[in-house]
Amino acid sequence: MPSERSTYDLVIAANRLPVDRVTADDGTVEIRRSPGGLVTAMESVMRDHDGAWVGWAGETGDAPEPFDDGGIHLHPVGLSAEDVAFYYEGFSNDTLWPIYHDVIVPASFHRDWWQAYQRVNQRFAEAVAALAAPGATVWVHDYQLQLVPAMLRRLRPDVRIGWFDHIPFPPVELFAQLPWRSQLLEGLLGADFLGFQRQADARNFVRACRQLLQARTKRDLVHVEGSSRTVRAAAIPISVDFKGLERLAKQPEVMARSAQIRESLGNPKVLMLGVDRLDYTKGIRHRLKAYEELLVEGRFSPPDVTLVQVATPSRERVGAYRTLRGEIEQTVGRINGEYSRIGAPAVHYLHHSYPREEMAALFQAADVMLVTPLRDGMNLVAKEYVTCRHDLGGALVLSEFTGAWHELHQAFACNPHDIEGLKQAMVRAVNTPAKDRQRIMQALRRRVSDHDVQRWAARYLAALRSAPERPRLEQVADAPAAPDPQAAEASPDPVVAP
Ligand code: ADP
Ligand code: F6P
């Protein structure tokens, strides 16, 4: 049943709703959880807030009627087939995504994609403007909606506008390649507060404003030319629902399922796990290469060691994603052809989407979690893994190029481009004595539990309320009293208070 209300004090806008509507040929409608870290994080936040979520419901055509799911009010925005091809697959995922991820694959620039991006951002801004109560808080998410802050400010100057970047913000040298770079920066500067995963991302944004817009900047502040407004840009790294996920992982059924998973894999001495969207940013090819070389060298041998790779298909109509899928499937086929035995594959390669309980069981079953992105804004999988390891078992191999590494630097660090180094990190994760691994896991868990998603949201909303001033600590409602946010200053990329 849709909510009876017509306006809300908190409205969030993200490209996707937390669920996709999938209509079968016989007209029956199925509601499926949508993929990705943004949904995982915001879904748990929105369950504690009585707000509305504006986003695409995953099908082309007119927007379905608003509906409620799990206590969240969902307001779909319609996207035509051309919008999906030009705004979502094109400009968002074939222009911005590669530029914001170190140009791992080349970016494509098309003027009609840019037209569609503007058109769809305007549609989102109008949908939000219609739902926001007077003086409401609006929280816009991610690279797909960078024009919404300024468009919304024109429509509704009374609302407070925040934007959060779930992915990296590129250095100005890469960002400057975008033919529409000034419009994108001006779009973001419509917000009161801009949140980023790492300080480096916030700094990149401020530097881009200074160099490309000739804006006056001071530390984390950007003055908006021709107005009296100042916008603050700071790092507030996203996290997971530590308590909720840990509770789930402690359920006897989940723990029993974890034992059952190991059993059905033949109780290997070492179970390695990778869980990723099938994205070239995730370093899946590099991980498989390192694993294959360890098999070739006889340092790992199935069935004692086995790898489970969960790879969720993603953005399948974008060429680079199709190519990647082909390459990965070929590599998995080659490794299995060489090293599997009947009933004991060297790599278990799975395309399925799993319920949270099954993910928690998989995390608990894995001795080594492989998180090897070439670039990743955060990587929530790394934080989910340590959250599920309440037994202090397991080891996390973590790429230095993830946002997560800037908080979880006790993990077994790797540079995925350095295959020899990646192999060493994998071997170290296996061979480190259990006592030392437990100590490491304890430290990782402490960090995630002190900085969970509830605290992230509280810090973000406090920063948005007080922007451009920094919030005073007591303004960070809901944040646990004990831990000192400045304690994070010890990490390699310190978190700006809050
Ligand atoms: P991204 O947002 O780039 O996809 P993250 O690691 O930040 O990467 O978030 C991925 C989220 O999707 C995590 O919450 C993870 O548990 C979830 N996820 C990934 N693959 C699956 C799958 N096959 N089934 C269910 N959930 C998945
Ligand atoms: O985290 C980046 C992101 O693009 C999110 O916006 C989204 O939740 C996730 O990756 C999945 O991507 P898509 O919505 O394109 O399937």
UniProtKB/TrEMBL annotation:
GO terms for biological process: trehalose biosynthetic process. InterPro entries: Glyco_trans_20 (IPR001830). Residues 477-498 have a biased composition (Low complexity). Residues 470-498 are annotated as: Disordered. Keywords: Glycosyltransferase, Transferase. GO terms for molecular function: alpha,alpha-trehalose-phosphate synthase (UDP-forming) activity; trehalose-phosphatase activity. Its EC number is 2.4.1.15. It is an enzyme of class 2 (transferase). One of its GO terms (cellular component) is cytosol. Pfam families: Glyco_transf_20. Belongs to the glycosyltransferase 20 family. This is Trehalose 6-phosphate synthase. It comes from Terracoccus luteus. The lineage of its organism: Bacteria, Bacillati, Actinomycetota, Actinomycetes, Micrococcales.
